[in-house]
Specification:
- Residues 11-247 form the ABC transporter domain.
- It holds the Pfam family ABC_tran.
- Keywords: Antibiotic resistance, ATP-binding, Nucleotide-binding, Transport.
- Belongs to the ABC transporter superfamily.
- This is ABC-2 type transport system ATP-binding protein.
- The structure is a single chain.
- The protein has 323 residues and is of the alpha/beta class.
- The chain folds into two domains: 11-230, 3-Layer(aba) Sandwich (Rossmann fold); 242-303, RRM (RNA recognition motif) domain (Alpha-Beta Plaits), CATH 3.30.70.
- It contains eleven helices and 14 strands.
- The protein has helices at 54-61, 83-86, 106-116, 121-134, 150-162, 180-195, 207-213, 231-237, 251-258, 284-293, 306-314, and strands at residues 11-20, 28-38, 43-47, 69-74, 77-78, 90-94, 168-172, 199-203, 216-221, 224-229, 243-246, 263-270, 273-278, 299-302.
- The chain has a six-stranded mixed sheet, sandwiched between helices. A four-stranded antiparallel sheet has the order 2-1-4-5. A four-stranded antiparallel sheet has the order 12-13-11-14, covered by helices on one side.
- Strand 7 (168-172), helix 6 (180-195) and strand 8 (199-203) form a beta-alpha-beta unit.
- It is globular.
- The protein starts with 10 loop residues before the first strand and ends in a 9-residue tail after the last helix.
- Bound molecules: adenosine-5'-triphosphate.
- The site of adenosine-5'-triphosphate has 11 residues, from strand 2 and helix 1.
């Protein structure tokens, strides 16, 4: 809480710049005048292609990397000047194997981290048991982590991120490797965190996940913030970019489709298979009519997804990585 009684943003980033030295060349700007504000209890998605700057941002927030310019604050505390006070406010969940002790059991891992956070033996035990239950690993608490599947390790990572009872959670690709059921349960867990007033900054390449979980989504490319939106607004914005898939389409018919008004392009996706992209509301209808009249029966329309939004926002470069 600030002196005025108004709660400080959970995360506030202003004009953030981070340059990396590159051997024999000009520095690489990983973050470029970046602004972001995340409220307590908000789940905020960070979406961007490889190299967009997401990890760099998370590293600066978690005080392991210094900014070149600009400021970043967590609950009103500066990540550089107040780094020591910022750390206990954060829970960081990076995916993969990093940071897990494979030979130790899940419970031992958590007790170890609880001790690092200054909790006594008894409290550490209690916390480990509670968190393992919470992430659905209770029945496997006493098994060595090396026997866990990738998704189970991800859950343990999340439990680890919660050991210090953080107000802000940085989740980097948290559901990678989880089966759909686990991913669904994980989403419920994120809902709980939101209800507890914790802020969540979620890095993901999974548009469906962002759409399902996030209150707002920031699209990043080349270290810059392209847009910050309610994920549903973006879906609506892009509804005019409807796609029609069809197979059994001869070349001459594909050419006729390409000439229809509002058709942006027709892409061949296999022998006789096409993906028709439109860039005007209602343009999919004449495409469907033309296909059906020509006797094509294998036709479907794709609902607008965040991925479409994302690709349109980053433009023609598509998913190519910047130099
Ligand atoms: N230590 C470093 N030295 C030089 N360049 C770096 C370093 N770390 C990151 N970069 C560069 O900064 C840019 C942003 O990288 P970053 O890891 O933040 O991207 P990202 O959005 O997390 O990507 P991904 O989705 O692949 O994890 C990239 O061009 C990357 O090559």
């Amino acid at each position: 809480m600030s002196i005025t009684g108004i709660e400080a943003p959970a995360v506030e980033v202003r004009g953030l710049v981070r340059d990396f030295a590159v051997k024999g060349g000009p520095p690489r700007r990983a973050l470029d005048d970046f602004d972001l504000a995340v409220a307590p209890g908000e789940v905020h998605g960070l979406l961007g292609p490889n190299g967009a700057g997401k990890t760099t941002l998370c590293k600066i927030l978690s005080t392991v990397l210094l900014p070149t310019a600009g400021t970043a604050r967590v609950q009103g505390l500066d990540v550089v000047a107040d780094a020591k006070r910022v750390r206990p406010l954060l829970g960081i969940v990076f995916g993969g194997e990093r940071g897990l002790y494979a030979r130790m059991t899940a419970a031992q891992n958590l007790r170890f981290w609880a001790a690092l956070y200054g909790h006594g033996r008894r409290e550490g035990r209690r916390r480990a048991a509670e968190l393992l239950e919470r992430v659905g690993l209770g029945p496997r608490a006493d098994e060595a982590v090396e026997t866990f599947s990738r998704g189970m390790k991800q859950r343990l990572h999340l439990a680890r991120g919660l050991v210090g009872d953080p107000r802000v959670l940085l989740l980097d690709e948290p559901t990678v490797g989880m089966d759909p059921v686990s991913a669904h349960e994980f989403r419920d867990l994120v809902e709980d965190l939101r209800a507890e007033g914790r802020a969540v900054l979620l890095t993901t390449h999974d548009m469906a996940e962002a759409e399902a979980l996030c209150d707002r989504v920031s699209f990043i490319d080349g270290g810059r913030l392209l847009r910050c939106e309610d994920p549903r607004v973006l879906g609506e914005l892009l509804s005019r970019h409807e796609r029609v898939r069809a197979s059994g389409v001869p070349e001459a018919l594909a050419a006729r489709l390409a000439a229809l008004p509002g058709v942006e392009r027709v892409r061949a996706t296999g022998p006789g298979a096409v993906l028709v992209e439109t860039d005007r509301g209602g343009a999919a209808l004449p495409v469907l009519r033309t296909l059906v009249e020509a006797g094509v029966t294998d036709v479907s329309t794709a609902p607008p997804s965040l991925e479409e939004v994302y690709l349109h926002l980053i433009g023609d470069r598509g998913m190519a990585v910047r130099p």
